[in-house]
Amino acid sequence: MIDPKLLRSDPAAVAQNLARRGVVLDVVAMKALEERRKHAQIESDRLRAARNAAAKKVGMAKAAGQDTAEFIAEGDALAGALGRADEEMAAVQGELDQWQLELPNLLHESVPDGRDPSANVELRRWGALRAFDFKPQDHVQVGERLGLDFESAARMSGARFVVMRGEIAHLHRALAQFMLDLHTRTHGYTEAYVPYLVARAALIGTGQLPKFEADLFALKGESSLFLIPTAEVSLTNLVREQILPAERLPLKFVAHTPSFRSEAGSHGKDTRGMIRQHQFDKVELVQIVRPAESYGSLEELTAHAEEVLQKLALPYRVIALCAGDVGATSSKTYDLEVWLPSQGHYREISSCSNCEAYQARRLQARWRNPDTGKPEPVHTLNGSGVAVGRALVAVLENYQNADGSVTVPQVLKPYMGGVEQLQPASW
User: Fold this and answer.
1) Which of 47, 118, 148, 422 could form a disulfide with 82 if both were Cys (CB 3.0 to 4.6 A apart)?
2) Does the active-site annotation cover 351?
3) 348 among known catalytic residues
4) What one-character DSSP code corresponds to residue 263?
């Protein structure tokens, strides 16, 4: 969440920043709510002091052998009033907390202006586009001959699911294994196996709740558990309610998990194939860092995701998202977009974000600053390193051959047991 002290001291500056996203902050309403909170706090403190004073009078009266009934009655009345004041204080604070949880993060000053993806800024491109001597097919046409099965998935689960069989399932697994090895052996991340089901508090901590509940899959019943939309949730929650010593930072975690998303609001968008699914795999990167180092860490984390695509020899570009396209929890985001020949343009395969202290405040994740000796919020970063299904899509399209086969990228051959091409098979 946004720093409550900043909200109280300079709401106009917060409103100006949020306006870049197209979010209107009602400063008058916020000030009124804060005044209610302050009044409730003052009244609660006054009654607590009066009750304590009444208790002292009882003790003094007893010591002097005097009648204590009057002072006990006074104390009981004050205790009742204090209870009501504390309830009012809790109600106002709860209203204020809920209101603050709905606000998106403040944007970094370097984020480009703009209200929609058309204002995103391309920073760089990597890789030469392949010149095909035949008309390239999309990943569905290529993959269905190799073991992608959308019909079976639809019969058992509905739309936006896929079954993989044979060597294409092997290739999907090889992609994930390659990414994990690269990030752990070369980039210094610690691999983690994490829960795929998390409690509501975990999702509030990373910012998916309360605002984006419609995007999540929740278990029915009394468990109040949700399927993770990304391993970012589980990995970032590893430091919730902790005060980390300075020497432990930075922390760098990586996990390969399925991700589950309802894709609410995406009806009719990317309905064909594997681009937008309810269940998909990702290799997720998370860093927990000192605040002064977080923007250097954003560049580093983005470079780590880029290296996956470079080693796969997949052409891509890096985009700086504009103010209106940056996700609610992020202060600044780079998207990596991979080239898909069948579509003739680049499609997102990774988003790398610096959330600054937004998630850390919600999680009570802190470090002890040696300069002040006091606990302060850490900064959290996350990024796909990369989405496995979309990497598979890109490999199928960029490495397809005229005879229907797909050449295995050089870097994946050690993970494929010597298989150099995926050949069409009868399924």
Assistant:
1) 47
2) yes
3) yes
4) -
Instruction: Walk across the sheet containing 279-289 and list its strands.
Output: 121-126, 316-320, 332-340, 345-354, 379-387, 279-289, 251-260, 190-191
pTM of the model: 0.90
Q: Which of 125, 240, 276, 317 is catalytic?
A: 276
Active-site annotation holder among 330, 351, 353, 384: 351
Q: List all residues 6 or more positions away from 80 whose beta carbon is below 8 Å from its beta carbon.
A: none
Q: What are the residue ranges spanned by the domains of the chain?
A: 26-102, 117-422
DSSP E strands, 271-331:
279-289, 316-320
- Active-site residue (options: 74, 263, 293, 348): 348
Query: Residue 286's beta-bridge partner residues?
Result: 253, 382
For domain 26-102, give its CATH number from 1.10.287.40, 3.50.50.60, 1.10.3430.10, 1.25.40.340.
1.10.287.40
What is the dotted CATH code of the domain comprising 117-422? 3.30.930.10
Catalytic site includes residue 261: yes
**pLDDT tens readout for residues 104-146:** 999 999 999 999 999 999 999 999 999 999 999 999 999 999 9
